[in-house]
Design goal:
By secondary structure, the chain is an all-beta fold. 0% of the residues lie in helices and 49% in strands. It is built from no helices and 11 strands. The protein is globular. It starts with a strand and ends with a strand. The model has no long low-confidence stretch (mean pLDDT 96).
Length: 125
């Protein structure tokens, strides 16, 4: 069983930056694909970014491409999401997720077996 814990959320002004962390415990995630999703009030959860088990492949939603960067440190059992040029539309609860197959589509939430509790990101205009 894998437990995921997100941190690093908060309140930031438009144009600012945050770095989210997702620390895994229970077992190593080195063979897992990892993803970040977000859910804004009144909206469905949406894909943000994902990274392959090796870190060699990354995927981004069009809305964050060029602004967000996903990375991982398998030695630390941690995944990161660096978010730059934040906009009010980025306001949401951000969730970290783990796909133990390591070879899914990366973008579909139902392929991820493990989820964190989420961290709130609020961007003021």
């Amino acid at each position: 069983q894998v437990q995921l814990g997100e941190s690093g959320g908060g309140l930031v002004q438009a144009g600012g930056s945050l770095r989210l962390s997702c620390a895994a415990s229970g077992r190593t995630i080195r063979s897992y694909a990892m993803g970040w999703f977000r859910q804004a009030p009144g909206k469905e959860r949406e894909f943000v970014a994902a990274i392959s088990w090796s870190g060699g492949m990354t995927y981004y939603a069009d809305s964050v491409k060029g602004r967000f960067t996903i990375s991982r440190d398998n030695a630390m059992n941690t995944v990161y999401l660096r978010m730059n040029s934040l906009q009010p539309d980025d306001t949401a609860v951000y969730y970290c997720a783990a796909d133990r197959s390591g070879s899914g589509s990366y973008t579909r939430s139902y392929e991820y077996e493990y989820w964190g509790q989420g961290t709130q990101v609020t961007v003021s205009s």
